[in-house]
Write a structure and sequence with these properties.
Layout: H1 9-25, H2 30-48, H3 51-68
Length: 75
């Protein structure tokens, strides 16, 4: 999700690589990986964000996700 961030690219890439490693180690298929990551996002929103802000934060996340998905034919 291309946005300016207060976190370094290195920190983001390190965490991403670790998450990918866990999913690959488990041989998780794409649908299971998406389900687990979605559940993680839901859990973070429900436990770390004030109730009054959760829907707005979820919408912002969903919008950022939508804008980062490519329309090319690569698979």
């Amino acid at each position: 999700m291309p946005q300016s961030s207060r976190y370094s690219d290195d920190r983001v890439e390190k965490l991403l690589a670790e998450l990918v490693q866990v999913l690959e180690k488990d041989h998780a298929p794409t649908d299971l990986s998406l389900m687990v990551l979605g559940n993680m996002v839901t859990n973070l929103l429900n436990t770390s964000i004030a109730p009054a802000q959760r829907r707005a934060m979820a919408r912002s996340f969903a919008d950022a996700l939508q804008s980062s998905v490519r329309e090319d034919k690569a698979h």
